[in-house]
């Protein structure tokens, strides 16, 4: 925008069509505009989900009724789950950040199917609107939990029909994004960007794309069957008619376990980008990190039944699924060790993206290790369906994917808006977030081990201390989020203008102007360097 | 938007094949249910399977196989630049799809006439396994039927594109992908047919 030698207008100014105003966004095929539209919706719905989460925590501050009725509580935690999983976390890094960054990292002008990309976004919009619609129509907001377990989901009078249709459409959107990204990576890498010179974020999106393509259709058929059962009453999951509810759980987790890797793999890709830039040192074990993404995608597709150890299955099956679950820990640990090894003897510059990425490593490690407690059959029987699971899950998905998204925002938003946020405030926000996060979720491990069941509206007095600390933590976390978002917003609107390469990165997105022009590159990208080799790379702030 | 236009034959095919994987997995969930329930209720599946009309099933299999042949012919014709014949055989593919659906309609109608449909009193009296068998029968052939309808819509678009020269001798990947889609619809039926009509 400022010190560029060329006078190409940025993608904000040049929409590539004659349309003006809002239509030039809603009907755009530019991957950057689509990425930003995803981002706005993801962040908007994230705030909705956070508010619902705060309401849950507030209700649980003391035993008995505090602010809402039990039925409302059931609806609130269901919505919190559905919104956060299907509308926020699944599209957060892959669809929003991936759309923004992937084509530029590959040296491409756009994704392989730009119009399909827009179609995915529209499906996402329709799915989101339908999900919100389900709150206010029919027999009230769904109260099944985000897992829609049968037989309850078949017979509850709340508006499950519309909610599962929304999930189906959101799943379709995710599939099309996956197809688009895989094809883009296969076909649109610029000359010189070979498979072993491709940035690790692109590798992680590649692995994610395969999970999206191969796992999401199973979710599609599963939620479709709920719809069919509710409307037609075929009875495939109804024991009174010869069906089997356990089969529903299998089908559901065949998607929904791999889905957590759709959520976490791109965040790992973000961290793999950020760590070497701020360690000023080439990534340790490039190939190991790239291959471990594929290993996680593959092994993670074979572990679904560890969600069902207490649902009833043979001991042999329990052993196999438990073993496979442990195997997933290996590629995950490979990544963590490689990140830490990259930092070792690096010339570390403490900047906000690195701080958030380090937060990711710490919180994800806690989440991952507690996952092993859940994956081993013996301990799982004790902590199954307790707050231990809730805490584990939030450490992985909020501490992992959430902080990965925050790191990505601090890393790449300046690139796409051409302006820098206040770094001091960003670091402070991280500190508050980190304290709030651990205050919120650490006590939940403890009361979970003590037997506090998840999703309960009321609880025994012995759990109150844990719940109270946790609720206080939720307020600290909210303050941290507020400061972070306000700071980012002020940054992108009023911040100091930046040059092409504010962090001194070596991947291709740092060669283009900030913000990039419509077709990304104002000159042929130089693909001669390695993605994590910083020799001769100048910071351009 | 013209700045975005780039033609990538291999990319388009790759994307289509990925989409076909998703179709396989969509039906895969139902095939898993079928196999679990078959092993749980072998006798009931055997009894219920006898009620299906093998003649209509066979006829529909032939219809779909011929329709796949027709769409393959349409692709071959456009590759040789024979636009009229390509349009003709796309129309014929659509006609065969319609023929399939009409057959399916009469088959379902007869079943309904015998009181066999989800939540029917007659089905409730039958053993559980037979209820599941017919439940799967309706869900799987129903989902397949929806795919046939989608396929017909796609063929309609293809005819439109052929007429407007958006599909040409030197740019026929749309028609080829439509053909791939039609083949997967055909292929799903090739598995449904023996599972419901023959092996029991």
Number of helices of chain B: 7
User: In what range is the share of β-strand residues of chain B?
Assistant: under 5%
**CATH-derived topology of chain A:** Cytochrome C Oxidase, Chain A
CATH architectural grouping of chain B: Up-down Bundle
Residue stretches of chain B low in confidence (pLDDT < 50, at least 5 long) are none
Summarize the structure in short.
The complex is a heterodimer of chains A (541) and B (200). With 541 residues, chain A is mainly α. Chain A is built from 15 helices and two strands.
Any descriptors?
heterodimer, A: 541 residues, mainly alpha, Cytochrome C Oxidase, Chain A, two-stranded antiparallel ribbon, 15 helices, 2 strands, B: 200 residues, Four Helix Bundle (Hemerythrin (Met), subunit A), 7 helices, elongated
Question: What does this 3D model show about the protein?
Answer:
In chain A, strands 1-2 form a two-stranded antiparallel sheet. Chain A has a single domain, classed as Cytochrome C Oxidase, Chain A (Up-down Bundle). By secondary structure, chain A is mainly α. Chain A is built from 15 helices and 2 strands. In chain A, helix 7 runs antiparallel to helix 8, helix 8 packs antiparallel against helix 9 (286-300) and helix 13 runs antiparallel to helix 14. Helices cover 66% and strands 1% of the residues of chain A. Chain B is mainly α. Chain B has one domain: Four Helix Bundle (Hemerythrin (Met), subunit A), CATH 1.20.120.80. Chain B has helices at residues 9-40, 42-49, 54-79, 83-113, 121-125, 128-163, 173-198. In chain B, helix 3 (54-79) packs antiparallel against helix 4 (83-113) and helix 6 (128-163) runs antiparallel to helix 7 (173-198). The radius of gyration of chain B is 20 Å and the shape is elongated. The chains are: A mainly alpha (541), B mainly alpha (200).
